Amino acid sequence: MGIDELLMVALMPVLKTLLIAVVGLFLAVDHISILSATARHHLNNLVYYVFFPSLLASSLVDSISAANIISLWFTPVSILLTFIIGSALGWILVRITKTPQQLHGLVIGSCAAGNMGNLPVIIIPAICAEKNNPFGDSFSCSRNGMAYVSLSMSIGAVFVWSYVYNIIRICGTESDGNVQISSTISKNQSAEINSSDSSREELLLKGCPSSQDYHVQPTFVLKRSEDGVKVPFKQHLKSLLGKIDLRMLLTPPTVATVVGLLIGVSPLREVIVGGTAPLRVVESSVLLLGEAAIPSMTLIMGANLLRGLKRSGVNLWMILGIILIRFAALPVLGVVIIKAARDFGMVGSDPLYHFVLLLQYSVPPAMAIGTITQLFEVGETECSVLMFWNYAVAAIAMTLWATYYMWLLL
């Protein structure tokens, strides 16, 4: 295949995602206001509690089995590497740009966590549907591709809702703690805090802690004792681990991932999956709910980008830094890592699997980061701006990287 054909194959799924996102953006404008803030809030709850878990569970049950899960062992390793490398680069970025303390978690999380959910789920089937795709016939390509993407999506969701959730929470609450200790709260600040009581009560009803719940916790800063001796690092580490909310490991996406994997690799799969399975109606119902996740998530993504379009008072260097990390540094390192893994025989010989692994390094930040910032009311405006510019650049960057990946794997 020529480079022009590969470019068209890579461009079609990106355009499809953009068109749906534009519809979401249009529905969110003030004159239409179908996807208003309240509507997005309720739709986001449906996605988080119903649609996305259904998509994860149905995809894993249908495509993962005891026979193929062992061969996909490198998937979690690759995702872990994206988070480690992205976090390290994000930490360097916050130091260089002198990012405010409360935004450290947002910047590091945006560099570490990529959108391994709705974008690959749209991109892979769309590429497979192209007649001249480089990965074989459409049916086999879609079936195998969904197995790879489902596992990536599930593991990525676990990392986002455990690691990124906690790092944004910790950085946000540390900032709150510093303000509480170093200054006296004015009457205006007290009024603002009181006005947010209803929001915090709503979060508590959902079982989600708000940033105010943690304002009395000690800040994670290097302190000295009265005699001038530094507090040991072990004590700081213990303080940090004590702040990690392990309850977030039991989020609906995580539970759905575990259930889907257990059913997929167990004999129970024969009872649920297949045209003659006794409980096939259960799989069909869950699959029907899961099919609503992708359009809903993409509409929300487009609607949320409207806020970023309206507001531009964010550090330009912080935006450029995240864009360079996500669309330049990570993809280049990803090519090196996957090429080395392929040379050592760690990822098998399927080029489609290699393509999915490479795609993990070149996607924009996970949209779930926006949901997390809304939960803790930390960096919501900055997150909207970051997401807008990253997804605007992704339209071009992902097309070019996908074209290069396919050329590299031919």
TrEMBL record:
Coiled coil: none annotated. It is found in: Endoplasmic reticulum membrane. It comes from Coffea arabica (Arabian coffee). The chain crosses the membrane at residues 6-34, 46-67, 73-94, 106-127, 147-168, 318-340, 352-376, 388-407. This is Protein PIN-LIKES 3-like. The keyword Transport applies. Keywords: Auxin signaling pathway, Endoplasmic reticulum, Membrane, Transmembrane, Transmembrane helix, Transport. GO terms for cellular component: endoplasmic reticulum membrane.
